[in-house]
Write a structure and sequence with these properties.
Layout lengths: L13 E4 L5 E4 L2 E3 L4 H12 L4 E3 H9 L7 H16 L8 E4 L2 E4 L12
Antiparallel strand pairs: 1-2, 2-3, 4-6, 5-6
Amino acid sequence: MPETTAPASSSAAVEFGVLGPLRVALGGTELELTAPRLRTFLAALVVKAGAKVGVNELADAVWGADLPRNPRRAVQLCAVRVRAQLERIDAAHLVATCPDGYRLDVPADRTDVGRM
Protein backbone atom coordinates (compact mmCIF):
# COMPACT_ATOMS: atom_id res chain seq x y z
CA MET A 1 0.00 0.00 0.00
CA PRO A 2 1.36 3.45 -0.77
CA GLU A 3 2.07 5.66 2.20
CA THR A 4 0.03 8.83 2.37
CA THR A 5 0.82 11.93 4.36
CA ALA A 6 -1.41 14.91 5.09
CA PRO A 7 -0.13 18.45 5.05
CA ALA A 8 0.51 19.60 8.63
CA SER A 9 -1.76 22.64 8.32
CA SER A 10 -4.79 20.53 7.35
CA SER A 11 -4.84 18.76 10.72
CA ALA A 12 -4.38 21.88 12.84
CA ALA A 13 -8.01 22.41 13.85
CA VAL A 14 -9.14 18.79 14.29
CA GLU A 15 -9.13 17.58 17.90
CA PHE A 16 -9.41 13.96 19.06
CA GLY A 17 -10.25 12.63 22.50
CA VAL A 18 -10.30 9.13 23.95
CA LEU A 19 -10.26 9.91 27.67
CA GLY A 20 -13.96 9.35 28.15
CA PRO A 21 -16.11 8.80 25.08
CA LEU A 22 -14.37 9.06 21.72
CA ARG A 23 -14.51 12.68 20.56
CA VAL A 24 -13.66 14.13 17.16
CA ALA A 25 -14.17 17.86 16.67
CA LEU A 26 -13.34 20.47 14.08
CA GLY A 27 -13.92 23.91 15.54
CA GLY A 28 -17.39 23.70 17.02
CA THR A 29 -18.45 20.73 14.90
CA GLU A 30 -18.50 17.38 16.71
CA LEU A 31 -18.38 14.22 14.61
CA GLU A 32 -20.32 11.31 16.05
CA LEU A 33 -19.18 7.81 15.17
CA THR A 34 -21.88 5.41 16.30
CA ALA A 35 -20.46 2.08 15.11
CA PRO A 36 -18.49 0.51 17.98
CA ARG A 37 -15.86 -1.06 15.72
CA LEU A 38 -15.18 2.23 13.97
CA ARG A 39 -14.86 4.00 17.32
CA THR A 40 -12.42 1.34 18.53
CA PHE A 41 -10.40 1.50 15.31
CA LEU A 42 -10.10 5.28 15.47
CA ALA A 43 -9.36 5.24 19.22
CA ALA A 44 -6.44 2.86 18.60
CA LEU A 45 -5.05 5.38 16.09
CA VAL A 46 -5.65 8.36 18.40
CA VAL A 47 -3.72 6.74 21.26
CA LYS A 48 -0.67 6.49 18.99
CA ALA A 49 -1.24 9.68 16.96
CA GLY A 50 1.55 10.26 14.47
CA ALA A 51 2.83 6.68 14.72
CA LYS A 52 2.00 3.61 12.66
CA VAL A 53 -0.42 1.15 14.21
CA GLY A 54 -0.02 -2.28 12.65
CA VAL A 55 -2.84 -4.24 11.07
CA ASN A 56 -2.51 -7.01 13.66
CA GLU A 57 -2.66 -4.54 16.55
CA LEU A 58 -5.72 -2.88 15.04
CA ALA A 59 -7.44 -6.23 14.49
CA ASP A 60 -6.73 -7.25 18.09
CA ALA A 61 -8.09 -3.92 19.36
CA VAL A 62 -11.27 -4.10 17.29
CA TRP A 63 -12.13 -7.81 17.47
CA GLY A 64 -10.04 -9.26 20.30
CA ALA A 65 -10.03 -13.05 20.25
CA ASP A 66 -13.01 -13.12 17.86
CA LEU A 67 -11.02 -12.20 14.74
CA PRO A 68 -12.80 -12.19 11.39
CA ARG A 69 -11.81 -14.71 8.75
CA ASN A 70 -9.68 -12.12 6.93
CA PRO A 71 -8.44 -9.62 9.56
CA ARG A 72 -6.39 -7.58 7.08
CA ARG A 73 -9.42 -6.98 4.85
CA ALA A 74 -11.65 -6.24 7.85
CA VAL A 75 -9.17 -3.63 9.13
CA GLN A 76 -8.99 -2.14 5.63
CA LEU A 77 -12.80 -1.82 5.61
CA CYS A 78 -12.67 -0.07 8.99
CA ALA A 79 -10.17 2.41 7.57
CA VAL A 80 -12.40 3.08 4.56
CA ARG A 81 -15.46 3.59 6.76
CA VAL A 82 -13.65 5.81 9.27
CA ARG A 83 -12.32 7.93 6.41
CA ALA A 84 -15.86 8.23 5.03
CA GLN A 85 -17.04 9.51 8.42
CA LEU A 86 -14.10 11.90 8.76
CA GLU A 87 -14.85 13.24 5.29
CA ARG A 88 -17.94 14.90 6.80
CA ILE A 89 -15.54 17.36 8.48
CA ASP A 90 -13.03 17.35 5.62
CA ALA A 91 -10.58 15.20 7.58
CA ALA A 92 -10.49 11.82 5.79
CA HIS A 93 -6.87 12.47 4.77
CA LEU A 94 -5.81 12.27 8.43
CA VAL A 95 -6.00 8.45 8.38
CA ALA A 96 -2.88 7.56 6.43
CA THR A 97 -2.05 4.18 4.95
CA CYS A 98 1.38 2.85 5.94
CA PRO A 99 3.12 -0.40 5.06
CA ASP A 100 1.23 -3.01 7.12
CA GLY A 101 -0.82 -0.48 9.07
CA TYR A 102 -2.36 2.95 9.45
CA ARG A 103 -1.43 6.22 11.11
CA LEU A 104 -3.44 9.19 12.37
CA ASP A 105 -1.63 12.20 10.92
CA VAL A 106 -2.11 14.73 13.68
CA PRO A 107 0.37 16.09 16.21
CA ALA A 108 0.07 14.47 19.64
CA ASP A 109 -1.07 17.77 21.15
CA ARG A 110 -4.27 17.54 19.10
CA THR A 111 -5.29 14.53 21.21
CA ASP A 112 -6.27 14.52 24.86
CA VAL A 113 -3.82 11.66 25.47
CA GLY A 114 -0.97 13.62 23.91
CA ARG A 115 -1.65 16.65 26.08
CA MET A 116 -1.31 14.64 29.30
